[in-house]
Amino acid sequence: MIAATSTPAAIAAKAASTTIPVVFETGGDPIELGLVRSLNLPGGNITGVSQTNVEVVAKRLELMHELLPAVRVFALLVNQTNPTLAEPATKCRQRLVHSGSNFMS
């Protein structure tokens, strides 16, 4: 069995074998990442858990505005090589622009 504890490791493990069982953990959507066909029937030799966190971006920004109401510029640090960060980063940028804040990435 291969235990893949990051998205890049899960993608590599899936590509490496179609017979060795793979259990993964990812912060992204396993369907969008191409790890599984569906959540209820992943298929093949791979299964795992996801901590998709796109839904909490708006709440995090709301809390930052409450804690730091005078701050209007935020920096967004993103690991561009991690495919799970693309969607949360885009959502965060959209929320910042919508709120009237500026961002640096």
Q: Helices and strands, in N-to-C order?
A: EHEEHEHE
The global form is elongated
Largest sheet, in brief, is: 3 strands, parallel
* Strand residues, percent: 15-25%
Spatial order of the strands in the main sheet? 1-2-3
Q: Fraction of residues in helices? A: 25-40%
* Average pLDDT, all residues: 83
Number of H- or I-type helical stretches:
3
Q: How many angstroms separate the termini?
A: 38 Å
Work out the number of β strands: 5
Alpha-beta classification: alpha/beta
Unreliable spans are: none
Question: Using only CA atoms, what is the Rg?
Answer: 17 Å
Topology:
Blueprint: E1 2-4, H1 7-16, E2 22-26, E3 46-50, H2 57-67, E4 73-75, H3 86-98, E5 102-104
Give a structural overview.
By secondary structure, the chain is α/β, with parallel strands linked by helices. Helices cover 32% and strands 18% of the residues. The longest helix has 13 residues, at 86-98. The radius of gyration is 17 Å and the shape is elongated.
